[in-house]
Design goal:
The chain is α+β, with helices and mostly antiparallel strands. The chain has two domains: about 5-105, D-amino Acid Aminotransferase, Chain A, domain 1 (2-Layer Sandwich), CATH 3.30.470; about 115-260, D-amino Acid Aminotransferase, subunit A, domain 2 (D-amino Acid Aminotransferase, Chain A, domain 2), CATH 3.20.10.10. About 30% of the residues lie in helices and about 30% in strands. The chain is built from seven helices and 14 strands. It has helices at about 25-30, 50-60, 70-85, 135-145, 190-200, 210-215, 245-260; strands at about 5-10, 15, 35-40, 45, 90-95, 100-105, 115-120, 150-155, 170-175, 180, 205, 220-225, 225-235, 235-240. The strands form two sheets. Strands 7, 8, 9, 10, 11, 12, 13 and 14 form an eight-stranded mixed β-sheet that branches. A hairpin with a 4-residue loop joins strand 5 (about 90-95) and strand 6 (about 100-105).
Length: about 270
């Protein structure tokens, strides 16, 4: 099999990513003023493309940035045809300078389980729920967590309420057996994979404090690229992969089988 080639479509023109050029004068680059999505490709087929494009439109509307969906859909189709049946991920960007960018990228390799370190984080109220290109705070939170020996961060509001990981939703099982996840209203992204879990399992949503998560018997992350990833530790609290995590993995596998005819992890 030939090596995977990363491709970029910029306003419809497709070139190898390493050879792609974009205009420098764009507030998407200068100020992170734009929106994005990342979509997993299974044998070249995108999971929940419509839902991701709808969220891209919502993100754009929140910051008064028009998202030309029709043009994007045409350009995505052309890019995916060039990509073929490779497992990969698709990144979409719309910038204030008027660029429509779609890129195929190799899948990120995730470990079987992930250790998290809690990092204090205050959501930007006017950007809550927006997948903005201004992701510097999220990425720095991950660096802080790695500096503490963890794999990724668990974002926690200054008042102690749990939010999410920088690029994933979090679920955990409290001592009584209830599966919990932070509510959208607490200041988190409306994750598409999170929604798939909630629609198929009995999940309590709310504002929960870090102490609640630290008392969990098991926990997992949910995201487009991770699917359902068990959490091995939160701060100094070690966790095992339990039945609720396995149920979530099975439920998401059913979603993939129903929508794309593949199993989770393939």
């Amino acid at each position: 099999m030939p090596p995977f080639q990363e491709l970029a479509s910029v306003n419809g023109a497709i070139t190898p990513t390493d050879e792609t050029m974009i205009p420098l004068r764009d507030d998407g680059l200068y100020r992170g003023d734009g929106v994005f999505e990342v979509i997993r490709l299974y044998a070249g087929r995108p999971y929940a493309l419509g839902a991701h494009l709808a969220r891209l439109e919502r993100s754009g509307a929140t910051i008064d940035l028009p998202v030309p969906r029709a043009e994007l859909e045409t350009e995505i189709a052309a890019l995916l045809q060039r990509n073929g049946d490779a497992d990969a991920q698709l990144r979409l960007l719309v910038t204030r300078g008027g660029l429509r960018v779609a890129l195929t990228e190799p899948l990120i390799e995730h470990a079987d389980a992930v250790a998290l370190a809690s990092v204090t984080y205050s959501p930007t109220v006017i950007l809550t729920g927006v997948k903005s290109l201004s992701y510097g705070a999220n990425m720095h939170a991950t660096r802080i967590a790695k500096g503490r020996g963890a794999d990724d961060a668990l974002l926690v509001r200054p008042d102690g309420v749990v939010l999410e990981a920088p690029t994933s939703a979090i679920f955990w099982v409290e001592p009584g057996g209830e599966l919990r996840t932070p509510a959208i209203e607490s200041g988190i992204l409306d994750s598409i994979t999170r929604r798939a879990v909630i629609e198929r399992l009995d999940v309590a949503e709310g504002e929960f404090r870090l102490e609640d998560a630290l008392a969990a018997s098991e926990a997992f992350l949910a995201s487009t690229t991770r699917e359902i990833q068990p959490i091995s530790a939160i701060d100094d609290r070690s966790l095992e992969t339990g039945s609720k995590t396995k149920q979530a993995q099975a439920a998401f596998a059913e979603v993939l089988a129903h929508t794309l005819g593949v199993a989770a992890g393939e």
